Prior knowledge:
The structure is a single chain. The chain is an alpha+beta fold. It is built from 15 helices and 5 strands. The chain has a 3-stranded antiparallel sheet, with no helix packed on it. The chain has a two-stranded antiparallel ribbon with strand order 4-5. Strand 1 and strand 2 form a beta hairpin. Helix 4 (55-70) packs across helix 15, helix 6 (178-214) runs parallel beside helix 9 and helix 7 packs across helix 9. InterPro entries: MetI-like, MetI-like_sf, OppC_N. Belongs to the binding-protein-dependent transport system permease family.
Amino acid sequence: MNTQSPLPAPGAPLQHYISIEPFDLQSVEAMTPEQSKVFQASQLRLMWWKFRKHRLALVSGIFLAVLYFGILICEFLAPYNLHTRNMDYIYSPPQQVHLFHNGEFIGPFVYGRQMMLDMDTLKRNYIDKQDDVQRLRFFCKGDSYQFWGLIEGDRHFVCPAENGQLFLAGTDRLGRDVLSRMIYGARISLTIGLVGISFSFLLGIVIGGLAGYHGGIFDLIVQRIIEVLQSIPSIPLWLALAAIMPITWSPILIYFGITVILGLLDWTGLARAVRSKLLALREEDYVLAAQLMGAGSSRIIRRHLIPGFMSHLIATATLSIPGMILGETALSFLGLGLRAPITSWGILLTEARSVSVIAFYPWLLLPMLPVILVIMAFNFLGDGLRDAADPYK
Length: 393
């Protein structure tokens, strides 16, 4: 039996059938609710779903978010003012926080201390007085400060007991609380990476993008400049550029000077990466279509080419920020970076230059701990963001 439809006569018009019903994705292909949720999700939502699967990156992101929020209120978080000196407690070791005294719950407290001088080594030894219980105070009045140098205040998150002491990270040679100075130093050390990477990305994307998109003599000149800069050892170049800054500059000018130096030295690698990507992407059909529609070079680079390798840019940024933090720390540690009264983690580490100081007062190396944690957190965060930037893989 022939079930085929008869063919239309030669020259007869073909019959077309068009459905006027609204288009329904579910009618085209049967999908489960989970599949439909993924299929209809936006790009940002897909990125977030993939990022939160990377647990280490998620924890690192939360850790960095807390740190960057903390630098906004570091005056409130620090137990002491940045410049407060406790001359009776020079080189005091870290105090331990206790909850129970003689089996009775007291709450967070520390024991008072008594200093004894070792006449053989002239070392200050501190002994906890077990009968002197000093309860910690929270959301309390303490040392006065200027919030961001503008508003007078004296409220702190935690304070020592009345006429007591609280040195959770010990004190330095002037009796200043190391923990408070670490909290204040985070504002400089963490922001210098963000400001520096902004300057570096601006140079790298603009110069590398123009060199890769247009090529020609401009590309040739840019490549020779990059080769010259990359052939110079970074540390001697840092030292040379930092040494030419006038000693009469204010701390703010020195801060921006160090930021510019770090940005000038970091843009070359990004520029080459952007150039190589654009050399490949500029031959794509969608670039030709944008050109035929009259789009300018800047719009094509900004709207069509750079989003194509955003995952690489994110990974580069998260690796460059800790590099700049390390650069500032190294310059300040060598005495060629930031100078007092500005406080950063690198400046705090200058207290531990001497081997004898490290042997007798090892807690002065504690500012090295946040540097290590921040660098590891940025690396883990970069891994998660790089994977999440392309959620379709």
